[in-house]
Amino acid sequence: MTEPARSETDDAAAATPRGTAGGRATLVTIDQGLSSITNLLAVLWVAHAVSAVDFGSFALLILVYTFVVGAVHALISMRVVVAPEDADDRPREVLGSALVLGLGSGLVCAVVGALQMLAGWSIGPAILVLGLTLPAMTVHDVGRWVAIARSKPVGAVVLDGTWLAVLAASLLALELSDQAGLVTLTLAWTCSGALAALWVPITYGMFRPKEISLGWLRKHWEGSWRLLVGNVTASGSALVGGVLIAFVSSPLAVAAVRGSILLGRPTTAVQMAVASSAAADIARDQPDNRGLLRYQRRTMTVAAVVALVNLVVLSVVPDSVGRAVLGNVWPVLDPLILPISLWLIAAASQSGVASALVGRHEFHIAMIVQIIGGVLSVGSVVVGAIVGGPEGAVWALFVGQVITSGCWWTGFLWHLRRTPAGAEAG
């Protein structure tokens, strides 16, 4: 089969030095930070600018966006990170599949929003806006990961940096003009992301009609569906766990768990960044088992250092700062700094393991581990909430993470034992 012709942009990117692994990991970390700040800025601004009812509606929009992007991330982004040859040679085919998924999801949202408008629901116009911009926002998110897969994470930084800058300017303009409302704030958030997505065709060229299809996804479906199942299980477990905790214990226990996760967000963002960078490097370099372990140890070391720094910061943070960030939830979390810190260290202990497995295309093992780890983790947190309320739930969060780490290490060691010494990825 003849390879598709490479564009001048592709050739230029291939000819550009890719930089060191450490430099790439740093840029991926910066990009993860920019992405987190963008959504956090939107949520905090809306919380201060509109009523509690409208804030709840905006939170629902964020949830819909997160669900769609999470599914596309599992189906396409995670898969292309470990298929760097496609990111190098066929980026528009990858992005074309993302665009089709975004168009389908956006159409559903737009129809739902239009029907809600006809029924007189106040959230209808905002849902319609999300639906109209969702295709571009989906391409934006996958574009970040294509850049990372190409070992050119500066492209991801440009994408998210542009979104953040345009969003900040839009929010400030709404504030100065006194036009802040659910629909206008939704327009500011979604349209700034869609505008930033223009970087994608500028970099890779305009889509050809044949590239706007699910062709690339169909070729890689064997691995993609496993990643999707694992991702949905993990995210679904967190949702089910929150509902069960509220049912068997109290909303305070749910707040303690969610607040703990929020406190750990800086650490988990860095861990995700170095893990994503490691997976891309492993897939591209195809190291033998010794090289694979070197990647894993390097990733785990960075994650552990960040977790220890987080522990120190949480231990010395003044009550005034804690209350300013988390409000009335801070008094609940203040006595639980130790289990929160231990949870982050336990999470660091598995860093690099998932990257190694996915980089070796062991999607089936990763799927099984995510399912088992997710179910056991939820079970432990629910039991902890029943036995010890908020404190028991957070300590159980740590126990659940230890269980999950054990599952990942079991799968990783099994992979190493069945792979001959000196062998490359299978």
Explain how this protein is built.
With 426 residues, the protein is mostly helical. The protein has two domains: 8-219, no CATH class; 223-418, no CATH class. The chain contains 19 helices and no strands. α2 packs antiparallel against α13 and α13 (265-285) packs parallel to α18. It is globular. The two termini are 23 Å apart.
Spell out the blueprint of helices and strands.
Layout: H1 8-15, H2 21-49, H3 52-81, H4 84-89, H5 91-118, H6 124-149, H7 154-177, H8 182-196, H9 199-204, H10 215-219, H11 221-248, H12 251-263, H13 265-285, H14 289-316, H15 319-326, H16 330-333, H17 337-349, H18 353-359, H19 363-418
Helix pairs in contact: 2-3, 2-7, 2-13, 3-5, 3-6, 3-11, 5-6, 6-7, 6-8, 7-8, 11-12, 11-19, 12-19, 13-14, 13-18, 14-17, 17-19, 18-19
What can be said about the biggest beta sheet?
none
H and E order: HHHHHHHHHHHHHHHHHHH
Level of helix content? over 70%
The share of residues in extended strands comes to under 5%
> What is the β-strand count?
0
Number of helices: 19
Membrane topology: Multi-pass membrane protein
Protein name: Polysaccharide biosynthesis protein
Organism: Nocardioides bizhenqiangii
Transmembrane segments: 58-82, 94-115, 121-142, 154-174, 186-207, 300-317, 337-358, 365-387, 393-414
